[in-house]
Amino acid sequence: MRVPLYSIHVEEEGRRLVQEAIASGALRQGKTTETFEKEFCAVFGAPHSIAVSSGTAALHLACLALFEPGDEVLVPTFSFFATASAVALAGCVPVFCDIEPDHLGIDLSDAEKRVTPKTKGMIPVHLFGVPLDCDALHAFAAGHGLRVVHDACQSHGAEWKGGNLAALGACTCYSFYPTKNLFTGEGGMITTTDAALAERLGRLRNHGMSAAYNHEELGLNYRMTDLEASIGLGQLHVFPRQLKRRRENYARIMEGVGTLPGVRWQKVPSGGTPGPSLLTGVLAPGIDRQAFQGKLSSAGVDSGVYYPRCLHQQPLFARTQPGVSCPRAESICPSVVSLPTHHALSPEQIAHLAATVREALA
Question: What does pTM read for this prediction?
Answer without folding.
Answer: 0.96
